[in-house]
Every structure is written in C-alpha cells, then in structure tokens.
Specification:
The protein is built from 17 helices and no strands. By secondary structure, it is mostly helical. The termini are far apart.
Length: 316
C-alpha cells in the first residue's frame, strides 16, 4: 500500500529550472526536516512536451516506496534494484533524459524524501543529489546507468554495474561509456572480479576505468570493436507503449533496440584485462562501497586529463 505523504505529489512530472532549486532548496529539505514549498515550486515548473501517460508520477512513486521498504537496512543496494525498473518505467529518449529540469522536478516535488533516505549522510543530503550532473543527481544517475549498461532489452549487466558503487560514482562520468561494447566489456571484467572474490573491487574498477579512458577515445574503441546502430523505430515504439507495472522480483525488459555485438565485446576483453593488470591500484582508507556517496578523483574523466602513467607499458 502506498505511503501517505506529508506533501501533495503532482500527478504529472514537470520541468523545474535549476534557479528554482537553488532558491528553494535549504538544509531543512536536505535533512528531511521540512517539506518542499509546493506552491512556489509548482509556479516555477512547466509541463513536459505532450500530455502522455509516461509522465505520470504514480508508477514512479510506487516504485520508490517499494525500494525504501525493501532496502531500508542496506540503502546502497537499492540502486541495483531501482535502476532498471526506473528506466523501464520512465520511458524516454536520451535527449529527454538530458534535460536536468525533469530530474529537478522529480527530486524536489515528487520524491524529496527518497533523495534524503538514499543520500543523507550524518546531517544532510548534498544539494547535487537534488539538482546536479547526470552522474550525481539521485535519479538521473540511475536512469543513465541503466541506459548505458543495458544490453538491448537485457538489464542484467546493469545489476552487475550497480553492485559496486564506484561504477556509479566514477565510471559513469567517462565519455567512453557511450560506446556500448566498451561498457559491456567493463561489466564483464567487473563480473569476473566479483566472481573471483577479489577484495576491494571498487579500487580495481577505478583503476580500470581510468586506464580505459586514458588509453583511447570512443572513436578508437569503435575501430577496435565496432558497434551496430541502435534500432530507432523499435526504441520509439517501446517509449510509445503504456509501460506495464514492473515486476518486483524479476527484471523488466528494456527496449528491443539491438544487442551489443558479442564479437566486439570479446575483442576488447584481452585489452581491458591487460590494462587492469598494469594499471596502478590506488587503495583508499574508505571505499565508495562503505559510504555509498564518496566520489574519488578519476584521472581522465569527462572534463579531465589523460595520464600516461595509467597506460600499460606497451601503449605508452
């Protein structure tokens, strides 16, 4: 049964500008002690294009309530459960998902309690969890990790990616993750580390992510491991459908817009395994698995630099 909320939830998602978030987000909301100023925030919001059922908030709210119910004793584990289900429920194009105003509205007007529940530290949830970059904002990062790591309709790689917080906190920032075979090869290496019981897998993920990003651009990996064009019409048909309620105990199906070529993933695996073997592992006293929110520095991230020391000797 849905939780009774102490504030009114708008029935449809909207678009809330960053300026409105900056004006009305305070420590009271960030700590969960105050409700959002509904009237002011709604006045600042506009409607998304069209009046389609995909923008209804009730299915999203039900999903978030279930996540809080299931994972109250292990909140970081909610990410792997929620990411594919949020993606399958909130169906849209990448261009639509790139509009930060949509995520602002979801965090400020529909589910500020979830943001606090998931990301509150000792005192407050960081403001960037309400309104921030796609790899930091509470809901945007989950939608994008599902979008970038799914293999066509298969969300299983997303569960693997979310099993180590460093993928969300660091790998998601990298330009090369836009290349689908690269994303799938990284997940395969991560899965092997987990299966082998490697201690502190987050340290290895950070080292590998930095090395992969430093070793080449998306263009380079596309030559080594070509991807097939995604099927645009199939994706649009999936978006246009009335999304069914997602299952709680099994994964939903994503858009059938084309799987990643297996041969391309296998072409990258030896390279990535070599990169991991020679990449410097930076051990941390407190890992992202422990905190769920700590974001270590990532050499070679989207706005970053390429460090030769992160390359294996044969590529320098």
């Amino acid at each position: 049964m849905p939780r009774r909320m102490p504030f009114d939830i708008p029935p449809v998602l909207g678009l809330l500008p960053d300026a409105a978030v900056a004006k009305h987000l305070g420590r009271g909301m960030q700590s969960g002690q105050e409700n959002p100023p509904q009237v002011a925030l709604r006045k600042s919001s506009t409607s998304p294009p069209g009046h389609e059922s995909r923008w209804l908030t009730a299915p999203i709210r039900e999903l978030l309530d279930k996540a809080m119910e299931r994972f109250d004793d292990n909140r970081t584990a909610a990410d792997g459960w929620l990411a594919p289900r949020l993606h399958a429920t909130l169906r849209m194009t990448r261009a639509e998902a790139g509009d930060a105003r949509l995520w602002n509205h979801l965090a400020m007007l529909v589910a500020p309690d979830y943001v606090v529940w998931r990301h509150k530290g000792n005192e407050i949830a960081q403001s960037s969890r309400f309104s921030g970059p796609h790899y930091t904002q509470c809901f945007s990062r989950l939608w994008w990790v599902a979008e970038l790591f799914r293999d066509g309709p298969d969300y299983r790689p997303v569960e693997v990616a979310c099993s180590v917080q460093d993928v969300l906190n660091t790998t998601l920032r990298l330009d090369v993750i836009d290349h689908r075979p690269t994303a799938q090869a990284l997940v395969r290496v991560l899965g092997d580390l987990i299966a082998a019981g490697k201690p502190r897998p987050g340290d290895h993920v950070n080292a590998l992510s930095s090395a992969v990003n430093a070793a080449g651009s998306t263009l380079v990996y596309d030559v080594l491991a070509p991807d097939t064009p995604q099927l645009v019409e199939e994706l649009q048909d999936w978006i246009a459908e009335d999304a069914p309620a997602v299952p709680w105990d099994s994964l939903p199906k994503g858009p059938n817009d084309g799987s990643v070529p297996v041969t391309s993933v296998e072409a990258l695996l030896p390279l990535f395994e070599n990169l991991l073997a020679e990449a410097p592992i930076r051990r941390r006293g407190r890992t992202t698995e422990d905190s769920g929110d700590e974001t270590p520095d990532v050499p070679g991230q989207r706005a970053g630099v390429s460090l030769d020391k992160d390359l294996p000797t044969w590529m320098r």
